[in-house]
Design a protein that fits this description.
The protein is about 40% helix and about 20% strand. It has helices spanning about 5-10, 60-70, 75-80, 85-90, 100-120, 125-130; strands at about 25-30, 35-45, 45-55.
Length: about 150
């Protein structure tokens, strides 16, 4: 059912916690399943030098949050924006189809944090927010359902 990597990231999650002086914070939730993810980033010269997460949810939600932080740490903000739920799933050696929505939440939490960062530095986020697929706090003005991207 779950790959060894999913179980490893669930039982030994990386980068758990909070960054009190974070440069970027993104929080997303899916009302249908109850998962909530919050990702913090410390950014220096456009590079994500530290990232942590707090997730309330199932094993897949915790594992995808953990993997997402591992995939973006040390990357530029622009590279982190390219993180896809598919990349998170592949890095975990797959997820059951009913749990793919957790990888979407991880992707959206990262993007919500970057929107937060861009707003703090005065960068226009209009186009980025139009690409939003879910229910992140940074685009709460939008009315839309959470997309599951289950292919």
């Amino acid at each position: 059912m779950y790959s060894e990597k999913v179980m490893d990231h669930f039982t030994n999650p990386r980068n758990v916690g909070e960054i009190p002086d974070a440069d970027a914070v993104g929080e997303v939730g899916n009302a249908k399943c109850g998962d909530i993810m919050k990702i913090y980033m410390k950014i220096e010269d456009g590079i994500i030098v530290d990232t942590k997460f707090q997730t309330f949810g199932c094993a897949s939600a915790i594992a995808t949050s953990s993997m997402a932080t591992e995939l973006i740490k040390g990357k530029s903000v622009e590279e982190a924006l390219e993180l896809s739920n598919k990349a998170v799933v592949e890095a975990l050696d797959g997820l059951p189809p009913a749990k793919v929505h957790c990888s979407v939440l991880a992707e959206e939490a990262v993007k919500a944090a970057i929107v937060d960062y861009y707003k703090k530095i005065g960068k226009d986020t209009t186009e980025l927010e139009k690409q939003c697929n879910g229910c992140c706090a940074s685009c709460s003005a939008h009315e839309h359902e959470h997309a599951t991207h289950e292919e």
